[in-house]
Amino acid sequence: MAEDLHIQQSSVAYGDENIIHLDDMEHIRRRPGMYIGKLGDGSHSDDGIYVLIKESIDNSIDEFRMGEGKVIEVDVQDGHVRVRDYGRGIPLGKLVEVVSMLNTGGKYDSKAFKKSVGLNGVGTKAVNALSSFFAVQSFREGKTRRAEFSQGKLTSDTGILDYSGTEKRGTIIEFVPDNSKGLFENYKFRDDYIEELLRNYAYLNTGLTLIYNGHKYTSRNGLLDLLTENMTVEPLYPIIHLKGEDIEIALTHTDQNSDEYYSFVNGQHTIQGGTHQTAYREAIGRTIKEFFNKNQDLADIRNGVVGAIAINVEEPVFESQTKVKLGSKDMSPSGGVSVNKFVNDFVKQQLDNFLHKHPEITEVMLQKIQDSEKERKAIAGVTKAARERAKKNLVNNPKLRDCQIHLNDTKPVKSAKDADDDLRLESCIFITEGLSASGSITKSRDVRTQAVFSLRGKPLNSYGLSKSVVYENEEFNCLQSALNIEDGLDELRYNKVIIATDADVDGMHIRLLMLTFFLQFFPDLVKKGHVYILQTPLFRVKDKTQTRYCYSEEERLAAINEIKNPEITRFKGLGEISPDEFKGFIGAGIRLDQVMLRKEDKVSELLNYYMGKNTTERQQFIIDNLVVEEDAVEGEMEE
After folding, report:
1. Domain residue limits, the chain
2. Does domain 223-374 have CATH number 3.30.230.10?
3. What is the reported pTM?
4. Which of 77, 187, 267, 560 has the fewest Cβ atoms within 10 Å of its own Cβ atom?
5. Comparing 614 with 531, which gets the higher pLDDT?
């Protein structure tokens, strides 16, 4: 048997002809994950088509930060993207090379772009390679040049021409994401994701105007505007806003039960934080503790803090091409000052000075810290016992079927299938109702990246309760422990927290109860885009030759019209779906709805109305708005 195995392995051909060279564009197309993180169809904010827009805008932002060009225009129509800036324009002689040859750009010399977002010469090349149509045109010193590409290959080049038209200097980038199989299939841009991207650019670049499909985005007060427009709860005191060379911070306290942060490096939104955010969080705690000099617990000081930090780093090092987490330890490649010391020194001096000058704010701050301390001490016994249980549960938690790879693993975990994928970003946990549902998912999941947490019936309605319920309620405590979010999101174990409930009234109720729990005690988990709702099919329509799974009534009717003599099954619970079927619903074709949280949603009012104690008022609302479609009911009965 060993000899047979040896013969089989030796028969695999491996010679000179197996060694191939890929040009830059082909390498990007074969390994897109290495350059833009993930692909996707536009339904999630971190899908690749938004990374393409960001990469196209980043160069224009860098021009503005160098004092060139105060307006950036972004137009998206029918999948066609156009980005126009009024900076200096790409040097015409190198126009084609800049957008098609890796490691080609003007940002390697720090004299030209000291604190740029994109230093590795990849951004626009990735956009070019992953677009079915890509064009770049530069206007510079009375001359212009335009080049067009398809899938990274040059299709036309005007060469350098004299220009006397009305267009001012600057650069135009146009592209259409490639919807070929294996890339951005069936993609669609969402305005709200693009608008959020542009608002963040505006907050971080005061004086810059971004125009998206005719709508202007600008900011006068930077991070102060960011917190004002994004906070879903009211601040306890006016937002503290401090600026210095290469650093800007803003912070306040709120009545929420955790702290949360927005962080940026060189204008890049570092969603997963990094060295600067960690330093900022620690500096806030230490500075306030030293100011009051009352031996306060750092957890009490930071409880309820909502803060933002933006710093400029020379040649920053990020943990991936998508630049969502800063890895730099020093402010420049030559060392000198560490990021931690730079942030800590600024916060310690400037925040301490501010606190001494504003006793009306420190009075409110101290009261908030004391309230947090009282609550912590009141549940200290419960917390200690719950933590002991949680430690045991991590070893043998009957509710958790864990996976092998987690978001907080210290090193990237590469996929055997695609060596450029970091599987940490694929890590997720399904929160299911009951053992039958969790059983189907557990048997069909990918054990590397998909964990399952099983609820026992309906969880407690946590609205209006103190944080002690997180520790007193066994399921909530086990879930908090599984997610590893007691002390914030820095060590979150799963990138996606997926609520997977039945498609019936009880399932909807459980979904609302879980969302209430997260919004009450861990709102940052929602705000950072980690919470999702799993879509599962409502119907199976099949005959002897084909099977169609339908996620809506419209899809069901369409399937009935296309399949002769169909057999129709209505799925009421996840437990009714066999493990073999479930593989298709939580694999490559998984459908997820990301839970979004915006200030205009008025979350506090919604939770109070729908989850509060006003039962009579809600009953009347249901009675007034109940709709019974008699024709539809009769049609179902006839079938």
Report:
1. 25-217, 223-374, 380-536+585-614
2. yes
3. 0.76
4. 77
5. 531
